[in-house]
């Protein structure tokens, strides 16, 4: 299952097991090893336990800052923990042997899906965003097996309302200071929702009640999508699966690799929407020559929950045909409950 992620540190993510033995051999030769146990997800019933093993206290501290705290020995007793090997002092020759070559001057992030492990070489631990994305990828099967739903959304809290946003990345980045967490990844359980990783306030659990609403954000310049509209559960699942962004489709609003098929994720979301009677809305942020963003975008989201919003009704049939052509080709066995 190959995947690549490039970022500011010129790191490369690939899926494979060749790195594990080389890095563990390196760590076993180091006299002082540092260990930290944590978790991805704030709910102890649906989290993924993580053990970090490093040759550097700096790398350990960096990861411990965003992993949730977990009970003593919970990782040792867990049936499927994730393991992070952070080798900051590893030889460049060993890094080259892993297979990335000249592209790995600053570090490597390598995920082994079969062994549920993550290898960080060199300065890779400094790129918290890339590390979080990869850890969330590794945690998806564990969280799903425990009854949680790993969603690529963000949480917005407004008064007593807990809102889950699925939006284009540039829209999210325009209002990160107003969100619970700027990182993609939330974990929905039968009783709560939380960011996948700890936020700046390390003393907070960030475990919230079930969402008040799910808000799907599209950018459509054709005029086919209203500014604000209410979705039925079947419509919400359909639009979530499509992830339509001004002519392009991004299934489940996920821009990176995932262990979970977007259709299965949409089915799980549909079941939650129906079972918990959660409202869903579709917002079109396109405003002609500009796009709604920042505080104005958040204000629109917050005001939507207090309005009597009309049900979704597209203008014209071109957009519906475009949706249908894409989804029927990519997902031939689309459930009948999924509707435009």
Automatic annotation (TrEMBL):
InterPro entries: PEP_carboxykinase_ATP (IPR001272), PEP_carboxykinase_C (IPR013035), PEP_carboxykinase_N (IPR008210). It catalyses: oxaloacetate + ATP = phosphoenolpyruvate + ADP + CO2. Pathway: Carbohydrate biosynthesis; gluconeogenesis. Keywords: ATP-binding, Kinase, Lyase, Nucleotide-binding, Pyruvate, Transferase. Coiled coil: none annotated. Its EC number is 4.1.1.49. One of its GO terms (cellular component) is cytosol. Belongs to the phosphoenolpyruvate carboxykinase (ATP) family. This is phosphoenolpyruvate carboxykinase (ATP). It comes from Senna tora.
């Amino acid at each position: 299952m190959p995947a690549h992620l490039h970022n500011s540190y010129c790191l490369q993510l690939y899926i494979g097991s060749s790195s594990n033995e080389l890095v563990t051999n390196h760590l076993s030769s180091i006299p002082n090893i540092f260990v930290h146990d944590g978790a991805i997800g704030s709910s102890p019933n649906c989290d993924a336990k993580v053990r970090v093993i490093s040759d550097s206290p700096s790398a350990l501290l960096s990861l411990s800052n965003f992993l949730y705290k977990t009970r003593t020995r919970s990782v040792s007793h867990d049936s499927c923990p994730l393991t992070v090997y952070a080798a900051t002092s590893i030889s460049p020759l060993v890094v080259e042997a892993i297979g990335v070559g000249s592209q790995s001057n600053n570090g490597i992030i390598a995920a082994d899906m079969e062994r549920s492990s993550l290898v960080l070489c060199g300065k890779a631990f400094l790129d918290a965003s890339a590390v979080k994305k990869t850890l969330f990828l590794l945690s998806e099967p564990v969280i799903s097996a425990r009854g949680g739903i790993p969603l690529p959304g963000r949480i917005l809290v407004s008064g007593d309302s807990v809102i889950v946003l699925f939006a284009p990345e540039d829209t999210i980045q325009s209002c990160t200071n107003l969100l619970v967490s700027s990182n993609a990844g939330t974990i929905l359980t039968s009783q709560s929702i939380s960011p996948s990783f700890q936020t700046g306030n390390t003393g907070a659990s960030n475990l919230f009640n079930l969402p008040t609403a799910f808000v799907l954000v599209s950018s459509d310049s054709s005029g086919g999508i209203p500014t604000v509209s209410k979705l039925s559960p079947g419509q919400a699942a359909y639009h979530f699966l499509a992830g339509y962004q001004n002519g392009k489709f991004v299934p489940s609003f996920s821009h990176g690799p995932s262990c979970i098929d977007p259709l299965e994720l949409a089915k799980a979301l549909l079941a939650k929407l129906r079972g918990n009677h959660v409202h869903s809305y579709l917002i079109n942020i396109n405003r002609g020559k500009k796009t709604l963003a920042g505080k104005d975008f958040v204000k629109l989201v917050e005001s939507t929950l207090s309005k009597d919003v009309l049900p979704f009704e597209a203008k014209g049939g071109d957009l519906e045909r475009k949706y249908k052509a894409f989804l029927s080709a990519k997902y031939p066995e689309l459930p009948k409950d999924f509707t435009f």
